[in-house]
Amino acid sequence: MFSKDRWSEILEALNANRFRTLLTAFGVFWGITILVLLLALTNGLKNGVTADFGNFATNSMFMWTQGTSKPYKGLPKGRRFNYKIEDVAAIKSEIPNLKYVSPRNQLGGFRGANNVIRGTKTGAFEIYGDYPEYINQQPMDILQGRFLSYSDINTKRKICVIGTGVVKGLYDKGEEVLGTYIKINGVNFLVVGTFKMSNSQGDDEQDASTIYIPFTTFGQAFNRGENVGWMAITAEDNVPITTIKQQVFDLMKSRHKVHPEDDRAIGHFDLAEQFGRISGLFSILTLVGYFVGALVLISGIIGINNIMLIVVKERTKEIGVRRALGATPWMIKGQILQESLVLTILSGMLGVSFAALVIWIMNSILDNAGEVENFANPSVSMQVVFTALIILVVSGLLAGLIPANRATKMKPVDALRVE
User: Fold this and answer.
1) Is residue 401 domain-shared with residue 282, that is, in the same domain?
2) What's the rounded Cα separation, in Å, for the pair 356 and 373?
3) Residue 138 or residue 195, greater confidence
4) What is the mean pLDDT of residues 133-159?
5) Could you read off the pLDDT of 203-215 as tens digits, one per residue?
6) Which residues sit opposite 65 in a β-bridge?
7) Is 75 helix (H, G, I), strand (E, B) or coil?
8) Do 139 and 32 share a structural domain?
9) Mean pLDDT for the chain?
10) Taking 80 as the threshold, does the pLDDT of residue 53 lie above it?
11) 179: phi > 0 → left, psi -120 to 50 → alpha, else beta; which?
């Protein structure tokens, strides 16, 4: 029940020595500020580092061939082999729980030889032969036109989809792009679309300097035949690619006469596994943030505890008078605990507000400065705010518990004798 007299007593007690109250409250204020800022900075680092994964399905892996390390069935050690387009069909039909299996080929390299020409302009760009479903694995925004289609695959059309970096390198500002032709290693391709990567935080320049053409056209135009450079494989959402990738490896080994125990022959990069490791690392960093912030907060709580002990000692005679007039031990204890709670929660909420202001300033600076590598959108969730509130309530009770117990143990006669 709300008691105006009780709140007047609390405010009077806190105002009795304002400087001491402010110094005591600062410990809790600073502790909760450090806690929230540490969690926000950890989240910002996590957002920045995992942004690259957000552009490629995190339940995916790349798979390519390497030299064999063991002889098998009369074939020598160190043998090289290539995946074929039939391998893709075999994986799709024989391995369950796979969402996408995309064969890929690549020509040229970023900042490599001048492999693309348009009129008098030349450029060094990455050229990929892909299937239409690759856009589901590597999300991108189609700015004009369209992406690859199965009609392009089946008819081996000489069409391409180009990144914004290619547009900037080969076209004048404001020039029409769709319907024009570019020459890749002497072969003319019709531009049917332009793109940019969705929410890219990685090597934006390299991503933008990319050209996609139909996989079948790539094989015909650049004499790759049915060879597959590597594959991008994505599992269904509820099945980790890490748990089924060995089935894919075993199938490829049997199809290409590779020793079953030759783990070197097939190279791969498990994006889901790497993403899991990074997520685990940031979970640990979050726990460290809570731990360090809690240690700083504890120092502030100890300060409040000490000050409340001093306050109880200073008010010994007052407590004796109240006990003599009929105040119960629980009334005295409630008074001390309430004062401790008010001081803790007020200073803590000011700390949360100050931390929120600092986070807002950081985000404003980042918005103006543009993208920062490995750091983006430092923030905390409402769950963190509620957790901080619970910590403050518990801390306030603990800080006032010892002084409250000491106050209730005083005998009224002894308290009245104190000078």
Assistant:
1) yes
2) 23
3) 195
4) 93
5) 455 667 899 999 9
6) 266
7) strand
8) no
9) 81
10) no
11) left
Are 341 and 398 in the same domain? Answer: yes
Is 181 part of any domain? Answer: yes
The confidence score (pLDDT) of residue 12 equals 65
- The answer for residues whose C-beta is within 8 angstroms of residue 307's C-beta and 6 or more apart is 20, 21, 24
* pLDDT over 60 at 113, yes or no: no
Locus of tokens 């290619």: 166
Per-residue pLDDT reduced to its tens digit, 349-363: 888 889 889 989 888
Give the torsion sign (CA, 239, 243, 245, 248).
negative
CB atoms within 10 A of CB 404: 24
Pair 308, 403 in one domain:
yes
Distance separating alpha carbons of residues 382 and 297, to the nearest angstrom: 19
* SS3 assignment for 188-213: EEEEEEEEEECCCCCCHHHHHCEEEE
Strands 187-197 and 227-228, bridge-based pairing: unpaired
The answer to whether position 247 is within a domain reads no
- Cα–Cα distance, 112 to 106 (Å, whole number): 13
Q: What is the mean pLDDT of residues 333-346?
A: 75
Q: Are the C-beta atoms of residues 230 and 104 closer than 8 Å to each other?
A: yes
**Whether the predicted model's global pTM rises above the 0.85 cut:** no
d(CA 169, CA 295): 55
C-alpha to C-alpha distance for 246 and 226, rounded to whole angstroms: 24
Residue 332's domain spans which residues? Answer: 4-54+276-417
> CA 179, CA 190: separation in Å to the nearest integer?
6
Closest C-alpha among 115, 194, 209 to residue 161:
194
Helix (H, G, I), strand (E, B) or coil at 103: strand
Q: Is residue 84 part of a domain?
A: no
Residue 336 to residue 418: CA distance in whole angstroms: 19
> Do residues 326 and 411 share a domain?
yes
Residues 192 and 290 in one domain: no
Is 27 within the bounds of a domain? yes
